[in-house]
Design goal:
This protein has 147 residues and is an alpha+beta fold. The chain has helices at 6-19, 22-32, 39-54, 99-113, 143-146, and strands spanning 60-67, 71-81, 86-87. The longest helix is centred in the N-terminal third of the chain and has 16 residues, at 39-54.
């Protein structure tokens, strides 16, 4: 069974935050017919989420994890409103603002360093559902940016 470390969880949380809003996450899992994780993997993910969330000061989080061929999970932790103690819901709308640019760049550069992505590839190479993704013929990160 795959070990879910805090680093893996952080990367997963970052990618989820970047790609979709919380309501789209919940809808995507249902509409795509993704199967749930095995009971053992689901339990391991839940333990990792509990540990990671306990180490933060975040009031709440919506988490979506998809591993092709293994399963999918959308779950929540904490409160949407700490004052009223209303729990987070998978369908809550979350504003993430401009911080996603930093998350995106950091994760992309980490993945490029690990040789898991090529920075000059079109977006559709990795995310075929992105509108106009195959038509991005120009490199998003140029040699100038890499220096």
């Amino acid at each position: 069974m795959t070990s879910f470390t805090t680093k893996h969880l952080a990367v997963t949380l970052t990618l989820v935050t970047i790609l979709l809003t919380a309501s789209a996450l919940a809808a995507d899992v249902k509409s795509a017919g993704n199967k749930p994780f095995s009971a053992a993997k689901h339990a391991a993910i839940e333990r990792a989420l509990d540990q990671s969330f306990a180490e933060t000061k975040a009031p709440g989080a919506v988490v979506g994890i998809w591993i092709p061929g293994e399963g999918a999970l959308v779950t929540t932790r904490g409160f949407a409103d700490p004052a009223t103690r209303r729990p987070m819901r998978a369908g809550d709308h979350l504003r993430v603002g401009s911080i996603t640019k930093t998350f995106t760049a950091t994760v992309l550069l980490q993945l490029a360093d690990e040789k898991k992505v090529q920075l000059d590839d079109p977006v559709a190479t990795y995310l075929p559902f992105v509108p106009n993704g195959p038509n991005r013929a120009y490199p998003v990160v140029t040699d100038t940016h890499r220096r």
